Amino acid sequence: MSRLDKKAIVAGPGYSRWLIPPAALAVHLSIGQVYAFSVFKNSLVASFDTSLTAIGWVFSIAIVMLGLSAAVLGTWVERSGPRKAMLAAALCWGVGFMVGSAGIATGQLWLLYLGYGVIGGIGLGIGYISPVSTLIKWFPDRPGLATGMAIMGFGGGALIASPLSNKLMAVYDPDFVSTEPGAVASGSALASTFVTLGIVYTVFMLIGAALVRVPPGHGDDSTAEHSPGSNGALVRASQAIRTPQFWFLWVVLFCNVTAGIGILEQAAPMIQDFFRENGDSSVTAAAAGGFVGVLSLANMIGRFVWSSLSDRIGRKPTYVMYLGVGLVLYLLLALFGSSSTFVFVALAVVIISYYGGGFATVPAYLKDLFGTLEVGAIHGRLLTAWAAAGVAGPLIVNGILDTVGEPGNLVAADYRPALLTMVGVLAVGFVANLMIKPVSEDHFDDDAHAANEDRISNRKEALR
Amino acid sequence: MSDDTTTTSPAVIALAWALVGIPLAYGLWQTLVKASALFTG
Question: What InterPro entries would the database entry show (chain A) (predicted)?
Fold first, then answer.
């Protein structure tokens, strides 16, 4: 038995479950760096002497690989346990930075695609789902709170990585001043920053891997006592994807993410455009940058607050709020967003908090529907919705905006078609959520279900 | 999974949370400074 195996990391008596969220956060804070990738964009464009679009592909490849690897490797993560998965994620993420650094140092863009995009992207997918199933098993009474804490870390990771990366680039290239418009760091500074980040994140993630444990009795899935779904469901991943509930939830996540990206993608130019008169905006570039910061905070806090709330009000009502109230807020933004900056910012903050909440609440929704038998693997498959939305969201928004002009030179009315399209997207998600009913018994894993019933009754018998 | 019978030292739990809490607090602070430009810029 390897020290990485699930059986080797069963918590001893009295091991506090409050050590598991920090272990999960160590991983999610590290991989959340991906959302701060834009800090390198200008410098990478200059270093490779290429277009913004060519550099933009690095991020897109990473997010698509996140979705694909989470879907393909979800079952492996579930069976191997969190420590082995976290180790694999740490190695992929670290090696991804190293290979990317080699690409920058040698001027080979394809190495950056391969390193950060493909290898790092696989690390993102494994890392993202690695602690989710374990957290739900440790916190069966509060799965929304537990996964909300971890997935909040993914949002928080970008908040750390952005200033940290700017500081590192300034250390390696004294001429680089991040606050100066259009500032670019040298190729060698970029390469050194990538190496440093790769080492720091690998070590940080390995600490999480060392800290994580599975709850007592969960060293072997075939003998573990699983928490069934709301109607007693215990469904395997291969069967879950044959249920309408899985695909309705896929649509829900896809729509929620697509709508959120609609604002996040264009946040800075959008707020300036909304308050532009006679060619001049009353919102300065610095204030627009501040707006992006405010949205980052809303994204992170929404993950924790709304996901925790879902433990009290239920998963379906929570998504009714994300999609239904979100739809109304989007409509208000389109029609009245330009009435005052306060109204605009307030509406955008709540909308983005729902975007973050949608990510964080979905594992608990899956647990309610399918039980904990293979919830991590099912979650992995569901994340393909994120990858799809990551492509579709910007395509929809940019496609519509391209017909009216260049963001940064528009006015509020120019955004209305794009925002109203997102209202329609949210309406589709809202209906899909309403269609979600408990999973039919036909999809239950009969063997796992019967064995689990026996284990539960034996435990209760022993307690008498 | 209640914590009623935990034998883990509170210091270990505090250390683990500090390990992730300190970088997160740094990121939050930096973002708050940046976000303040929305109200002052």
Answer: MFS, MFS_dom, MFS_trans_sf, Proton-linked_MCT
Where is pLDDT greater, at A229 or A243? A243
* Per-residue pLDDT tens digits for A328-344: 999 999 999 999 999 99
Q: Which of B6, B19, B39 sits opposite A22 (nearest CB)?
A: B19
Taking each continuous run of H as one helix and of E as one strand, the counts in chain B are 2, 0
Same fold, A6-10+18-211 and A237-448: yes
Instruction: State which fold the A237-448 domain adopts.
Output: Growth Hormone; Chain: A; (1.20.1250)
Q: Return contacts of B36-41, CB within 8 angstroms, 24+ apart.
A: B36/A290, B37/A286, B37/A287, B37/A289, B37/A290, B37/A293, B38/A287, B38/A290, B38/A291, B38/A293, B38/A294, B38/A345, B39/A287, B39/A290, B40/A287, B40/A290, B41/A284, B41/A285, B41/A286, B41/A287, B41/A289, B41/A290
Superfamily of domain A6-10+18-211: MFS general substrate transporter like domains (1.20.1250.20)
Ordered by start, the domain boundaries in chain A are: 6-10+18-211, 237-448
Chain A contact present for B22, CB below 8 A: no
| CA torsion angle A154 A160 A165 A166 (round to 10) | 130
pLDDT digits (tens, 9 = 90+) for A89-131: 999 999 999 999 999 999 999 999 999 999 999 999 999 999 9
- Min Cα distance B6 → chain A (Å) is 4
